[in-house]
Amino acid sequence: MDYEAEIARLKRERNAIVLAHYYQEGDIQDVADVIGDSLQLAQAAAKTQADVICFAGVHFMAETAKILNPNRIVVLPDLEAGCSLADGCPADRFIAWKAKYPGSVVVSYINCSAEVKAESDYIVTSSNAEKIVRAIPEGKTILFAPDKNLGRWLVKKIGREMVLWQGSCIVHETFSERKLIALKTRHPDAEILAHPECEDGLLSMADYIGSTTGILKYALASPKKEFIVATEAGILHQMQKGAPDKTFIPAPPEANCACNECPHMKRNTIEKVYTSLRDLSPRLEMRADLLERARVPIDRMLALSA
Ligand code: 13P
Ligand code: SF4
What we know:
Helices cover 42% and strands 15% of the residues. By secondary structure, the chain is of the alpha/beta class. The protein has three domains: 3-81 and 265-285, NadA-like (Rossmann fold); 85-164, Rossmann fold; 177-250, NadA-like (Rossmann fold). The strands form three sheets. The chain has a four-stranded parallel beta sheet with strand order 2-1-3-4, sandwiched between helices. Strands 6-5-7-8 form a four-stranded parallel beta sheet. Strand 3, helix 4 and strand 4 form a beta-alpha-beta unit. The protein starts with a helix and ends with a helix. The model has no long low-confidence stretch (mean pLDDT 97).
């Protein structure tokens, strides 16, 4: 099966677009209409006129696209593609946590369920979190969920305390500081690029910290030739395409495993992208009241990110 040609045909027939996150396999990125970080993909979903959105990413991303497009069909190639951050922040526990801090402003990372979004004042991504948190009036208690590492990085950067939910990403937590030090010794000129979902110790070694798009842009613009990349390995596909003369070294996980690949993101395959467009399934379906409530903090984020 020539998946590329078949996907192109189905996109035309169904007036569909494929949105792909950088953590998808290279062959999926290559058939996408938009490849981006969480914010860019949400922005693309917000402005599309397509009848069908095939979201090659994880559940919370496709859910966000559905919230922004209640009347369009949104398919996720594998409905089981979850996220450890979203899974580690169930709505009932989140509501109980929030209740302990009446009057606070609740900022949630986009890596959370629609139910958690519906209970939040602002949604942020790693590329706009700093700007949005800085815009919150002084004197307000801020709750930040679910990523403690991104939260701690923001607290340090902005110099403002926040109450942090203690969640983390299974991929970004596996990078080993010890092995990174050894790798840097062997590649002293390499710049270390890290995603803010990494732990504090690792971030303190980074030359640049940012979202997947931020990391990619930095690597392409830098005069340096070697980079150690501390985020999910899928990002290397666009790095190598954009700068074939540069060397990109994935940061090593502590164990001898492929733990720098997100098992949720990697549930999607090019074949599943094809079948999801062919069958218009599996679809994201959500209750109308949840769609409406979850949209409020997402719209606030989009307005502040324009
Ligand atoms: P960004 O795409 O915003 O950099 O986030 C990375 C991520 O972990 C998505 O799940
Ligand atoms: Fe979630 Fe981490 Fe996978 Fe991103 S890389 S989808 S944060 S588990």
